[in-house]
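CORE FACILITY INTAKE
Project code: CF-77B
Contact: R.S. (postdoc)
Sample description: multi-component assembly, two entities in total
Requested service: structural model of the whole complex
Turnaround: standard
Below are the sequence entries exactly as provided by the requester. Do not edit them.
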Amino acid sequence: SSELTQDPAVSVALGQTVRITCQGDSLRSYYASWYQQKPGQAPVLVIYGKNNRPSGIPDRFSGSSSGNTASLTITGAQAEDEADYYCNSRDSSGNHPVFGGGTKLTVL
Amino acid sequence: QVQLVQSGSELKKPGASVKVSCKASGYTFTSYAMNWVRQAPGQGLEWMGWINTNTGNPTYAQGFTGRFVFSLDTSVSTAYLQISSLKAEDTAVYYCARDVFDSSGYHNWFDPWGQGTLVTVSS
């Protein structure tokens, strides 16, 4: 099992707000980064650092962190946001990256 | 623009070897480490390790020692993943991803990713 824990599946009504969480001890020391992966495509970075979006990522995506939990929030979810979302940070030793198990987001 | 382009899909028999390439463009290749990530069918992302593109020194995650080798050809800005003695359970999509650190050198993320290379191992 991963050292970063994510809910396997989350759903949200179109236009509503959804929070996807990632839990792990290393998140007390390291920021999480978040990746969106649509079927048959490579992962795409959507949030990095404290709360930064790469160029081209809509501002409805935001990140936050508290204690051992990092969160990715989508404010006003769109149909095109339906995807798998993965968090990434360090393992418990802090030496190596590790991914969460992923969260499948369904937009209803 | 910064881009990673990987080699095409491979179909191999058990016991064979495969070499996947990842060609970088749009940035100084030796300024950023390169990671390799595996995604088995229907599964999540699994970090395999990384290679220091300055020194060529590889670091392998647990479970990816022995049959997996990371290498470079800096003259053509390309990283390679070679897998030997292939097994059916090596069937997966393999991604390369550039390692980016913030100004503190403490926090990092992967951006961009290659498009992925499907390696299928079947008799």
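Facility notes:
- The mean pLDDT of chain A is 96.
- DSSP finds no helices and ten strands in chain A.
Invoice: internal transfer
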